[in-house]
Design brief:
heterodimer; A: 3 helices; 2 strands; B: mainly alpha; two-stranded antiparallel ribbon
Chain lengths: 77, 570
């Protein structure tokens, strides 16, 4: 295992990638959760791909997470 | 008495104990010998694995972190098992079966937590390396008060998480098989204590791998059979049925409806209820269960940041050989959890065309019936699509879920008490042997406490304790851990203040829950939503403010950051 320390730029790049991807995930996740509440139920009930929009966005969290994970592994090589 | 003799003696005690727990039990639909057979398989497998791993568990490193050399795939599967509790296996689908679409966020919420673990915590935490979560923070800030504060959080979080597991297992088998509640919980406590005491983390991990594989496989097989057998292989058809279905929680309120659908097949029952309640919402209507956007936000925050602060998940990163291995284990866990929770959602909607009349009949019995509908509907569905064999496998899957989660919690508490309390405050000169002895005693004490609390709280609805555990982890552990690993400016005082603030807000919520009840609101947030929102915000603000006015950034923060974020290599 290498013990060479990361450069300041390398560390910053890593932080930007990690926190950037996490923010992307979290905004999507929180947004989908909020749409699925009674306050936004009219928006959530709009039809999309044969199901309510709220449900579609909620279910999309699974593939979106896997996609973000793949991007992260690729970018952090 | 040598170790082999001891294990044979334990085996000869536990096997009749399971039989004794089942003694005199009768269930109209369930084949008891098959269930007992599957449970005995787990008991025997656990004891064999413990005996096998105990031969190589010699040092503190072996006991606490399995020698830090476990392959990432094994840890990934074990992590999946540690996270999938009985609530995930039975409750996620069952809750949809009671309330409808509002409950899909139970599954999605639990799933989402691991992204923070992967992207922010796993790699740097493994690079720091320790035996406990407190140890990782302490390596930057050598202040014993940090160890004490995190140890306290670990014990509280793990106890809140553990008691519902034991209670759930006892209730499940009391309802399902009419087994004695106390015997079931005591038996589970003994079994887990055995494999933690003798096999440490290695036995815990190997057992979790078997239990997780069984649990995950059972869920996938069950959903596949139900999807093609009951859902005709079409998700849209399943949703169409859900669109016509009156939520069982509403249908069960009308005795005339309950009487009218008694004995009817599910499709006719759904049509009958719709005719009798034409204006009622459907199971696709939002708002049957969820009433507050604030509560939803708080729950989501607790789940996302809480998972990244759960000590029994975080210590698993110390068992793999490198940071890259830690990340790969979390990635495997995220894929496995995603498939599992997607299955749970589909299964939840399949409950309507599958067992709708049964759901309504259960719920019409009152609060106990609602609990039955939530916890028994997956097993009822197993029986419908796969007969008594699949139902027996499902019941064993629930036990596997309880065992894998509870064992992870218990070894975390044992490690924390012996390493962060005993070794630091009580006997700083303790030998490794003495420290391990305390860890083993703690396991026994923790087991006894969990069993006692489960027996004492049997009549209480304590499902919210798990959510509270996530809330405390999110508030007290995550902000401190995240900033320690990523922000060089973070100070020792800020970390302590942040942990205490998170813990304080959480304690306030616990007190309000007990004194005022779950419906009481604090600044617009129902306390049932948990301390997540206020706790995370408050502890983060305190962390930033205290960092700005203090200067002790720890023992060589530059070196710490270099270690935490060194390049990944295998």
């Amino acid at each position: 295992m290498s013990d060479s320390p990361p450069s300041s730029n390398g560390m910053r790049r890593k932080a930007v990638i990690n926190f950037g991807l996490f923010s992307l995930f979290f905004i999507f996740y929180l947004g989908a959760a909020v749409i699925q509440t009674p306050t936004f139920k009219d928006v959530a009930a709009l039809p999309a791909l044969g199901m309510p929009l709220g449900m579609l966005l909620s279910l999309l969290i699974f593939p979106a997470s896997w996609l973000i994970m793949i991007v992260w592994f690729w970018r952090s090589k | 008495m040598n170790l082999k003799t001891l294990f044979l003696a334990l085996l000869s005690f536990l096997v009749p104990a399971v039989a004794l727990a089942a003694d005199g039990s009768e269930s109209g639909e369930l084949n008891i010998p098959i269930v007992v057979g599957f449970i005995l398989f787990f008991v025997i497998a656990s004891i064999f694995i413990t005996w096998w791993t105990s031969r190589s568990t010699k040092s503190a490193s072996d006991f606490y972190v399995a020698g830090k050399g476990v392959p990432w795939a094994q840890v990934g599967i074990a992590m999946t098992g540690s996270y999938l509790s009985a609530a995930s296996f039975l409750g996620c689908a069952g809750d949809i079966g009671v309330f409808g679409i509002d409950s899909i966020w139970l599954s999605i919420g639990f799933f989402g937590g691991y992204m923070a673990v992967l992207l922010i915590i796993a790699g740097p935490l493994r690079n720091i390396g320790s035996y406990t979560v407190a140890g990782a923070l302490h390596s930057r800030y050598p202040d014993d008060r940090i160890k004490l504060a995190v140890m306290l959080c670990t014990v509280v979080i793990s106890t809140f998480y553990l008691v519902p597991q034991m209670l759930g297992a006892g209730l499940l088998f009391e309802l399902l098989l009419h087994w004695n509640f106390v015997w079931v919980t005591v038996g589970l406590g003994i079994l887990m204590s055995i494999y933690i005491i003798f096999g440490g983390m290695k036995a815990t991990l190997y057992n979790q791998v078997i239990q997780a594989s069984f649990l995950w496989g059972t869920m996938v097989i069950l959903v596949t059979l139900a999807y093609f057998g009951i859902g005709n292989g079409s998700f849209y058809e399943i949703l169409d049925t859900a669109n016509q279905t009156v939520p069982p929680i509403l249908a069960a309120k009308d005795p005339a409806v309950v009487a009218a659908i008694k004995g009817l097949p599910a499709d006719q029952a759904i049509a009958t209820v719709r005719q009798m309640m034409p204006d009622a919402p459907s199971t696709m209507t939002i708002g049957v269960k969820t009433s507050s956007t604030m509560a939803m936000v708080s729950t989501v925050i607790a789940l996302v940041f809480g998972t990244a602060g759960l000590p029994h998940i975080l210590i698993m990163f110390f068992t793999v050989p490198s940071a890259r291995a830690a990340k790969k284990s979390v990635a495997l866990c995220i894929v496995a959890l995603g498939i599992f929770y997607l299955c749970a959602i589909v299964l939840g909607f399949l409950l309507f065309p599958g067992i709708y009349p049964k759901l309504v009949a259960w719920i019409s019995q009152g609060p106990v019936g609602v609990g039955m509908a939530k916890n028994m509907s997956v097993l009822e569905m197993s029986h419908k699509v796969g007969g008594t064999w699949l139902m027996a496998i499902g019941a064993s899957g629930a036990i596997a879920a309880v065992l894998s989660t509870s064992a992870g919690l218990m070894i975390t508490v044992a490690s924390s008490v012996s390493h962060d309390l005993y070794k630091v405050y009580i006997n700083p000169n303790a030998t490794e042997k003495q420290e391990l002895g305390i860890a083993k005693i703690t396991t026994l004490v923790m087991s006894a406490i969990a069993v006692s609390l489960a027996v004492m709280l049997k009549k209480e609805n304590i499902a919210w304790l798990v959510m509270l555990a996530f809330g405390i982890a999110a508030s007290a552990i995550f902000p401190a851990m995240c900033s320690t690993l990523w922000w060089k400016r973070t100070t020792r005082q800020a970390v302590i203040a942040s942990i205490l603030t998170g813990l304080g807000v959480s304690v306030l919520f616990i007190v309000l829950l007990f004194v005022k009840g779950a419906k009481y609101s604090l600044f617009g947030l129902p306390v049932a939503g948990g301390p997540g929102l206020f706790g995370v915000v408050a502890s983060t603000i305190v962390l930033i403010l205290v960092t700005m006015v203090t200067s002790d950034t720890g023992k060589n923060p530059t070196e710490f950051m270099a270690l935490a974020h060194r390049p990944d290599t295998e």
